[in-house]
Write a structure and sequence with these properties.
homotrimer, mainly alpha, Ammonium transporter fold, 2 domains, 3-stranded antiparallel β-sheet, 15 helices
């Protein structure tokens, strides 16, 4: 190929590479719009604004800290510990690559996609701990999970040179492990120290359901998260003008991802619907569990198999939820079940269904043992640091708000605003004739009409 | 062109083709987020969660059944009846093309876009029948519409080899016929058998408006649907590195689509606003009617003409709504008017304004007669199967929930959860001084202050 | 390069160019979904639907008028006054370029992206004037701002041949000036004539906070706007298969935009949180202020600098809000502070931090003086026409609704519908045992159970 032609094609590929990940970032913003709606809806009305503020602050602090710390860790730690490789040095915040640079059109866009992954990981945990955690403790923990712990996991097991690939043949193309498992198990570690909300369990241990104040808003939020997942999953592939590859460098197609993402979503919803007997929160969370449940093998499953695996993932989560209640774990949004549980399931299923499938570059083939060890690593990496840091905070009384504040509601104590100052009142309207009519909401409602003449 | 250069360019085109339809799928997910918000808002509060569950289950069952049945029908039926062509065999669920396959990077992404079209078609109908249909009957009907009927219509009239193109010169680039008309007329067929909600018509036939419990949520939902429509419409063109084509293979541009989509949206809103005298539900639905009203000729209209045609589409729908009320048809979301009515209008307008425009490959030119026959085919294909199946279900008492359940609300009977357990209460907040203030919502509200000292 | 290869590469670039801006348009639709949610939430419940209708009508009238007038002005006025250049003639509504045309695949898609910018500009102003402006006056003003004034500003200062670039070296790649400043200062001009809402200031001038009826909805709306901003910002670059350029033709990368957009968002949220002491409305608006605050220099700032500049932008807006209150300016959504204030700040910061940076094509380098003059031009262009037209309307009594309508609420007077006919009532549900349970929302709620046997 003549060099000028090759140059033109390479440049075009690079331009489209930027476009591709820019869209990935934009779609992942919807995950955060969705999280805000989802978690606000899942709170009681006395805590609504405190929840929204936690969401915003988690996003902002993770983006900033991921620039200064997280991206470096990803590039420095594939071998297990920090090594000052070229890639690591290029990821230092003062490097030429970490800013506008027409000679490097890729770093910013990759950093951005990873930063959104980081914010997602930190935000998954945030839902679990709502309604009783201190904001300061929350911010420390969300930065720990979002800008340190998960990205070390990604360097180890979701990187073309990560030791989990080179030693174990670990396979998790859709980040079910480094994002979802780590977020879910970190949530579990914190929840053990944080304890349940007041009134969540009776003295004898019987669980009491504390209901979302606005379940429809929670459901709309999850639908936005589903949309944003398409940004997340396209962020899991490597674009090149010669074809797509997984994060491990093996060839793949967006067609494979489309088949299995959609079949996973469908299977997860149906599985959770059946196993929860139509409970709405679990049913819609089942969609998430379904996608996560097939994420590790998105590149290789047959779509019908993905549907069946996702049925299992969706069907599993209500039981994990019940199991956690037995241990008096109070997880407001089911993060441990949906992300931790389905993430673990996802990693293990790859070991069952794809064992023996070869990896590229002389790395070991996929194996059940490799997946199992990888799962244990991610469990530990998610659980231990979050458990220890939250335990330390608990010891010095920094983890949880005082019970009287919790009973009263966080908004009143923390937030100089109020979510629904008018409530949502019944309203009246002017009818076709000009009369004012108190609205007949349905057949049971009484119609009250004020004739036009009597209206001032 | 040297073969290696040609190969490199073809490969790059194929990579970007995948990217293009992946984005189409992702944006169409917003249609479903929007439908959920829209239909939940349009329900009464006693049916809110049952509505949301129907949305989720429609989506999940259509995606799954479209993998096993729908995609095959599209590829097998362009000639009118099932033929086992190569394309048909490649669309069988056990074919090599229907799964991850690095030698076929296109099938999954095309399937995915069509699957989202299918889910949209099935979901359009779902809004019409809310608040009194049995879930089991609903699922059968939504799969019938979403995975069987519309896709046969698409094979016939929205396919480069479909008989409606080759025999009639039928032209409907934006799927106003196979998606919107079929969904709308299927809804009509079901509504005739299903009957109106209790209290929707008085004994003398006078209609009683049953209001959406949360009209703002319905409006936000429609705005998300508008966004998702850009995914839908890009899914209506064929990407290639040599330029875009319509589904019929004639050359087109996204510029044409952008001009006419936006002018259609604007015209539809204005038309519906004027003709409904500012009724919000019809006004925002007018945006949808406007886009649908110009969809069939998006590739060819002048934007000023598109604006005028859309004015007509938007202006028409409130009248169709009123006409349906005369026949005691109770369509909760106006699906028959907005999708059936504006879809029919769209197909016919092409016959009026674009008659004589040549089609490619020796197919007949666009004609009013061809559009008219095409419209009748889609009306019949939408109406008849849905009418007959719902009639059968009615005969065996499977179509509608018992009146006492309907009066009480579906959520109480069907759903183990509740949407707004606290209502949306008036909340209090802490003022700048530390006093707790019962919030003065506006100038008419009474301010109640509890001094800081008296707050425990 | 052989001509056939060059042709193939150029064609592919053109195809992807259309794809790029189509995505920009689609994402910007989310800005309008977000504006609707945001402004509806920010209204009192008595004005909710009137607010939503204003949003829809602003969008529709701007899109239509931008086709007939706005796009021509952009292409005709870079030199300062209307000149009938080739570009201007090609932008006339009856030109061959302003409609479907396979020989011009770019005009429609550029027009579409600019039309969405126009709708954004007009809609920014709309939030400021809610709850007391006449719909007719509003529509005149929104078209003035959205289809005339801002686009003249864009022709002058956001165009490769604009006189502000060629004379002053003005630099504002992210449209902080022509979009945000103009919208913000236009809002200010109107607000002076419109006056505050009834009850917003006491007789002695003390401000009274009028609270959003649904702050969570406002926050979800802003999150959608953040997502849409990625469409807005990609619409600020020029795609080509040889690399990205700013609107001024200087080379840039999406990587630079990704770094600085995300760091701007993070910095703005944190700055506003700190300076408003955790007030939710200002905190989330701080995200917007942060992005706007760095928008003018997105291509050139180091991300750490962008973070710091955005901290300042976010921290500034609550003070601008307070300052406006001193002058009895009642800006419902903070548009003057967030868009006008942060936009001005953004343009000036470029003068401080990027002074001396060379522009392309022999244009003057960036300078503080050039930025300052540019800022004054945009302030004047935003403020003066909007002030004068609204003053004229005020004189003839066309600007503001009568006080009795305002007190009663606009919905009752203007809109034949009602937003929440049922309020959002407390609901009951059926428990696991089949008993009906009045829901225990939290530990303070009383559980009321109706045994299954007593339920009819």
């Amino acid at each position: 190929m003549p060099p000028d032609v090759e140059g033109a094609i390479t440049t075009m590929g690079s331009v489209n590479n930027e476009f591709f990940y820019w869209m990935s970032i934009a779609l992942m913003m919807l995950i955060h719009a969705g999280f805000l709606a989802y978690e606000v809806g899942a709170s009681r009305s006395k805590n609504v604004l405190a929840t929204a503020m936690k969401n915003l602050l988690a996003f902002a602090t993770i983006i900033a800290s991921f620039f200064f710390v997280g991206w470096f860790l990803y590039n420095a730690m594939p071998s297990g510990f920090i090594e000052m490789t070229d890639a690591a040095q290029a990821a230092l915040p003062w490097s030429d690559n970490m800013g506008p640079n027409t000679a490097d059109s890729a770093s910013g866009i990759f950093w951005g996609a990873f930063a959104l992954f980081a914010a997602t990981t930190g935000s998954i945990m945030s839902g679990a701990v709502l309604e009783r955690i201190r904001t300061s403790a929350f911010l420390v923990l969300t930065v720990l999970v979002g800008s340190v712990v998960w990205i070390i996991g990604a360097a180890w097991g979701w990187h073309g040179a990560g030791w989990m690939l080179t030693e174990l043949g670990f396979h998790d193309v859709g980040a079910a492990g480094c994002v979802h498992m780590i977020a879910g198990f970190a949530a579990l570690g914190i929840l053990i120290n944080l304890g349940p909300r007041l009134g969540r369990f009776k003295a004898d241990g019987t669980p009491v359901t504390i209901r979302p104040h606005n379940l429809p808003l929670t459901m709309v939020g999850l639908m936005l998260i589903f949309t944003g997942f398409f940004g997340f999953l396209m962020g899991c592939v490597i674009y090149s003008n010669e074809g797509y590859a997984t994060i491990y460098g093996s060839p793949t197609t967006l067609s494979a991802f489309a088949f299995n993402t959609l079949m996973g979503l469908a299977g997860g919803i149906i599985g959770a619907y059946m196993m929860s007997r139509g409970e709405p929160f679990w049913t819609i969370s089942g969609g998430l569990a379904g996608v996560i449940g097939v994420a590790a093998g998105l590149d290789l499953y047959h779509p019908a198999l993905a549907f069946i695996i996702a049925l299992g993932a969706g069907g599993l989560i209500p039981y994990i939820g019940k199991l956690l209640e037995k241990f008096k774990i109070d997880d407001v949004v089911g993060a441990v079940a949906v992300h931790g549980g389905a993430g673990l399931y996802s990693v293990v299923m790859v070991g069952i269904f794809l064992a023996g499938y070869p990896n590229t570059d002389g790395n070991p083939s996929i194996s059940l043992w490799g997946q199992f060890v990888g799962a244990v690593v991610f469990m530990a990496l998610g659980f231990i640091p979050a458990y220890l840091v939250s335990l330390g905070m608990k010891k010095i009384g920094m983890l949880r708000i005082p019970p009287e504040v919790e009973a009263q509601g966080l908004d009143l104590a923390e937030v100089p605003a109020t979510p629904y100052p008018e409530g949502i009142p019944v309203t009246v309207m002017r009818g076709d004739t000009g009369d004012i009519v108190a609205v007949p909401a349905d057949d049971a409602g009484e119609v009250v009409t004020i004739p036009k003449e009597e209206v001032k």
